[in-house]
Amino acid sequence: MRKELTDQHNERSHQFIIDCLREALYRDDTLMQYQSYIDSGKMDKTKELGDNFQRDLKEMVNGLQTNIPDVGIYIWSCGEDGDTHNTQHTIISANVFDKLGNDRSIGEWIFDAVNGDVKTYGLELLDKSF
């Protein structure tokens, strides 16, 4: 996915006010289950798979920031499991106007970006360890 976003940015960045915004939960339980299925044929959810997901997300974010200098990133945590520290899946079941551990809500982040103020929030979650 990072390559596709980078290619789109390189080919069409002059056409967009915002080059790229990326939102993600830092230990998305559902996405990690699908990745586990792709890797092993088993839809599993463990702390270790959460660690792998978090590490892979950090690598993807670093790649986006390297290849798309003005990318806006919003990493957040909601519905974290007490044992695995894995989080809920997507923003759909959360209120887009809750701060979700950041200075701005995801709704405010998008509004700000549309109005020319593209920012990044929540990168510290990518370094959180358990």
Which features does this protein show?
mainly alpha, 8% strand, 130 residues, two-stranded parallel sheet, globular, 4 helices
Q: Could you explain how this protein is built, in words?
A:
41% of the residues lie in helices and 8% in strands. It has 130 residues and is mainly alpha-helical. The chain has one domain. The longest helix is centred in the middle third of the chain and has 21 residues, at 47-67.
Short description:
The protein is mainly alpha-helical and 130 residues long. It has four helices and two strands; from the N terminus they run H-E-H-H-E-H. The chain has a two-stranded parallel ribbon with strand order 1-2.
- The number of helices is 4
Quaternary state reads: single chain
Q: What's the number of structural domains?
A: 1
User: Taking all residues together, what is the mean pLDDT?
Assistant: 84
Radius of gyration: 15 Å
Portion of residues in helices? 40-55%
Separation of the first and last Cα atoms: 27 Å
* Unreliable residue stretches: none
Enumerate the strands of the largest sheet in spatial order, edge to edge or round the barrel.
1-2
Largest beta-sheet details: 2 strands, parallel
Q: Could you state the order of secondary-structure elements as H and E?
A: HEHHEH
Q: Beta-strand percentage? A: 5-15%
Number of separate strands: 2
Shape: globular
Structural class by helix and strand composition: mainly alpha
